[in-house]
Amino acid sequence: MSRFAVDQLVFVPDDVDLSRSPLAGQLDAESFVLGAFNPGFTRLDNGNLLMMVRIAEALREPIANGHVHAVRWEAEGGRNGGRYVRDAWPIELANTADPRKFDVPGGGWRVMALTSLSWLLPVELSADGLSVVAVHYDRAIAPSAPYQCYGIEDARISKVGDRWLMTTCTVSSERHATTLYSSGDAIDWRCEGIVLDHQNKDMLIFEGLIDGHYWAQTRPLGDLYFAYPPGSEWRPGPSINLARSPDALHWKPCDRPGIRPHTGTVATARIGGGAPPVLTDKGWLTMWHGVEPKEIVGIYRTYWSLLDRDDPSRIIATGETPLLEPESELTRPIEHQLYLRDVVFTTGIVDAGDYYIVASGEADLACRITHIPKAEFGI
Question: What is a single molecular function from GO for this protein (predicted)?
């Protein structure tokens, strides 16, 4: 059971009307909502909250006639100059152990395709985040460029001054990159293009400037990491780095490291960004995920740190125990739709006075809202 009094699912796959999906009527096969999860999160000018929900739309029968199929957007033909198609891969060439993706021959390096294509659905919530006010299908964000041909994933929304900035992970055979969107109201968004290139995920823009610059947490990935010296407190692998920018478009990585995994625990053997950092009286509050190795996917939990308000590379405090853990009781009513377990992935935070409203993806399936008292962070 959750240790927080308010902790519930607010949006699940059955809440999505696929007849209004950007893919509707374009595939010669039935699709379904694999997950409605990992929402970008912010407060609108009218006081309500907005979740930008990742909708992973998958083929009901991906394997047919000896082939495994993937959905892809291509720029030629169809609506608005583009259309959705199915690609077929011989099943004997594909590794389908992970329900979210499958590996195909890569000529010496890993190459994968996805079992779903993701698009973003704006869902408006009440001011406390506990009920749905409206679902804005007419404002959905779908692939519109070749670098998004396999989908748009895991939005993170930050308000800096009077402008909203939204980072997304865009997936294609060209690159696995970060794309920026901007908005004056968090409803109508303009794509600003790629801002971080290949294999850089979980970009979180700080909700405020530091010395006149935009700052962001980033998380470059790769297959090669160099060892720390014997006896070091740090574990080599993916870490949360920092970058700054004069305009939110052109980013320079910081020389100093950000948040790194410790050797003392396997619970955070792999880490990455969660909710965009927000400023408090004691510094920047950042929530991030730690992954403990287990089977194929691992166990995802949410942790937190406080960063110095003038130098975010300096960590003031870190919660040693998980802030949020996967909650099987929350997903029990939709148990029949589960395809993963042991995953909570926090993606947004909004100030609500004495507490924060925190948005997460639960089990890569649904959207979870938690009210967390500020006293939890000593604020």
Answer: hydrolase activity, acting on glycosyl bonds
Closest CA to 373 of 352, 348, 353, 355: 355
How many domains, the chain? 1
> Does the residue 207 lie in any domain?
yes
Which residues have CB under 8 Å from 320's CB, separation 6+?
A: none
Cα–Cα distance measured from residue 56 to residue 107, given in angstroms and rounded to the nearest whole number: 28
- Kindly give the pairing relationship between strand 63-64 and strand 101-104: unpaired
Compute the distance between CA of residue 359 and CA of residue 287 in angstroms, rounded to an integer: 11
**Using one digit for the tens of pLDDT, what is the confidence trace for 2-36?**
999 999 999 999 999 999 999 999 998 999 999 99
Residue 1 included in any domain: no
Determine what percent of the chain is predicted with pLDDT higher than 90: 86
**126 falls within a domain:** yes
CATH of the domain at 208: 2.115.10.20
Alpha carbon 101 to chain centroid distance?
16
Under 8 Å between Cβ of 274 and 287: yes
DSSP 229: P
Instruction: Give the separation between CA 103 and CA 257, rounded to whole angstroms.
Output: 32
**Residue 78 in this model has a pLDDT that exceeds 70:** no
Locus of tokens 């607010």: 10
Query: What distances in angstroms separate CA 26 from CA 31, 86, 171, 267, 321, one per listed residue?
Result: 11, 10, 20, 43, 46
Within a domain: residue 283?
A: yes
Mean pLDDT, the chain, as a whole number?
95
Q: So what's the pLDDT on residue 312?
A: 98
Whole-angstrom Cα distance, residue 287 to residue 271?
11
Domain extent, residue 99, equals: 7-377
User: 193's torsion region: left (phi>0), alpha (psi -120 to 50) or beta?
Assistant: left
**pLDDT-derived band of residue 331, with 50, 70 and 90 as boundaries?**
very high
DSSP for 17-59, written as a single string: -GGGSTTTT--SS-EEEEEEEEEEEEE-TTS-EEEEEEEEEEE
Cα–Cα distances (Å) from 205 to 15, 45, 117, 249, 260, in that order, read: 29, 20, 25, 11, 18
Rounded to an integer, the average pLDDT of 336-347 is 97
